[in-house]
Amino acid sequence: MKKFTLLISCLGLVVLLAAPATAATQQAIQQSIDDGLDWLAATQVGSRWDDSNGSTGWVAATASAVLAFIEEGHLPGTDYIDGGGVNRGDVVGRAVDYIFSYAKDYKVYRNAGAPAGTIYWEAASNVLSRTTYTTGLCAPVIYALGKAYGKDALITSTNPLLSGKSYKDVMQGVMDWYEYGQGADGGWRYYPNYGYSDNSTAQWGALPFLYGNSWGLSTPASVVTGLTSWTNAVQNDVDGDWRD
User: Fold this and answer.
1) For the chain, where are the alpha helices, taking DSSP H only?
2) Is the pTM of this model over 0.85?
């Protein structure tokens, strides 16, 4: 997962790093992005991207990689032609189908005591301990597709959990899952109600609420109160930074 997260971060930071002092042109910036996408397209394994953690990271790695394509306007149903003229096929469509296939209802799949309609993602090898990470990396894909098609557009998927739902509906399910799984300390860890939190996972819990709010979905006051408590607790009062 780390190598793909690093690459996507590099793609996203190209514009920020291309300050006027470097005299980088917009064309050069775009070429760097396109080169990165070409590399990703060439390294796709069937419908997914592999990860150094093995199958436990396939879903997260695939979500990280395909987000870079979607943000650049490449959507399902269109072949990707790389800079060398090689047709890589429907890179985005294959990856999105793969991601959608792993969405699950937490109440049905893991915990009968969970609220109905909670949506989360579990890795290819069904490892509970990576669900906070994996769901947090899939949520941006839902948001990006919802921005492209419209948040009320209905999803078509072989996964009955998602098929017929709008992107907004799915995001609500994700928010409900993170609300249910928020720790007593206000953050998130590897899986719901872990017992204690850290910032490497708490960030993924907070992100879907930002997406949902932009679509008119409301964040429960308890989530805001808890997250505020968490961020205050982990901030260093002396220099203002945050510990993990």
Assistant:
1) 2-17, 26-43, 58-71, 91-101, 106-109, 131-149, 167-181, 199-214, 221-234
2) yes
